[in-house]
Design a protein that fits this description.
alpha+beta, Ubiquitin Conjugating Enzyme, Ribosomal Protein S5, domain 2, 10 strands, stress response, repressor, cytoplasm, RWD_dom
Amino acid sequence: MADGTDAADAAARDEELCALEAIFGDSVSTSREDSFVEVCIPHPQGGIQEVVLRVSLPSDYPSSSCPVAALYGDHLSDDVLAWAVKQLATLFTPGDVVLYNWVEWLREQEIFWAVPSAPSQQVLHNGKQQQREHREQRGDEGAEEEGATHGSSRRPATIKEGIREAEAVELLRAMRVTSGEPYVEKKSTFQAHVAPVRSFEEVAAVMDALLSVSKIRDATHNIMAYRIRSEGAGGCGGSFLQDYDDDGENAAGGRLLHLLQAADVRNVVVVVSRWFGGILLGPSRFTAINNTARVLLEQMGLVSGGGKGGGVAGQGGKGSAGGKGQAPAATISGKRAGR
């Protein structure tokens, strides 16, 4: 029995390390022989601070023991680092892998990123430049202030980011983008977004607007498929412009496009955002992705409950099937291998 548990733990650790390497890329260093992993966590808003998480994985993790964590950050006090390590331990549940959740928790702690690093010459230069621009906008005169730091220049950038996101939300509303209710399965969250489109350029515009919203942009995957009816001369014949993007969730985009084809949904782009929760779902993730999209399409009246017909009202019945899209898929900031 113990041998079986050991083998299961070893397989779970290897899968978790593979997932971390796929998600965080060069920010992760692993040693399977030493059961060790290091993750460099950069400032979420592009600042110069970073936090390094180093973890040793016990042989009975994740079935029993919690990983042993150590945190490093030159800008943080020993007390803050010790507090964070204790908090990480509370996030562990025997039987569940936890490293992805640890990294996401660390990224979300404002206490780590509000503390400025020692000002470098580049930071001082950037701070002074923003002060000059601010005075010029106000029409102020006077000598340049000394001692500007990185911390003093963060608030204007935060305000600008908020303005851009508010504009993106308004743009999504103008594009008639509808977002469904989030669906959670084993700590992974799925949310669908649907918009009417008539061209590949409109697909790209919808994707740009969606990815301007920080929550959507930070999703582990944004799986996309679109299907557009192109009428032939005189309204006869015609074909379909269609394609998909897995965004690192291998094979998910093709399955999402198949859903649109099977239900004859036309002139729409569908995006399903997935926030990975740290537990591998296996093939059931494809069911969760397609079901999340189908529920929203049904609520919008684009797919019947039985899964037949559908289509956007007033846009005609079935047409001749086209091949895989005549244009490349709208590029999403692709990231990760499927989990």
